[in-house]
Amino acid sequence: MALALIRALKGPTVFDRIVAVNVFGTKTVLIVALITAISGNDDLIDVALVYALINFIAIVAVLKLSRMRDLAAAGEGDITDG
């Protein structure tokens, strides 16, 4: 996780930084799942799943924002293209 954090801070491109943040989020989900398995507290697995979904949606939104410069812009192949 330390290497991902360093890449997120010093990445040469914005895409390197986005991937590093995604790796950091994935490792966090894995740590929460590991804690759940060790402690036997099954309620924490829901927290890990919600965090994974939030991480995925946030990464997709940031990638679209970095590519289109507008979150509301229709992408290629959308139904609204006509």
Structural topology:
Elements: H1 2-10, H2 14-39, H3 44-68
Helix pairs in contact: 1-2, 2-3
Rg (C-alpha, Å): 16 Å
Report the principal-axis shape: flat
Q: Return the string of H and E elements.
A: HHH
Tally of strands: 0
Poorly predicted regions are none
**Structural domain count:** 1
Number of helices: 3
Instruction: Quote the beta fraction.
Output: under 5%
Question: Biggest β-sheet: count, sense, barrel?
Answer: none
Mean pLDDT, all residues? 84
Q: Please give the alpha-carbon distance between the first and last residues.
A: 44 Å
Helix content: over 70%
- The helix-and-strand class reads mainly alpha
Keywords:
single chain, 82 residues, mainly alpha
Structure overview:
The protein is mainly alpha-helical and 82 residues long. It has one domain (2-70). It has helices at 2-10, 14-39, 44-68. The mean pLDDT is 84.
Summarize this, please?
The model has no long low-confidence stretch (mean pLDDT 84). The protein has helices at 2-10, 14-39, 44-68.
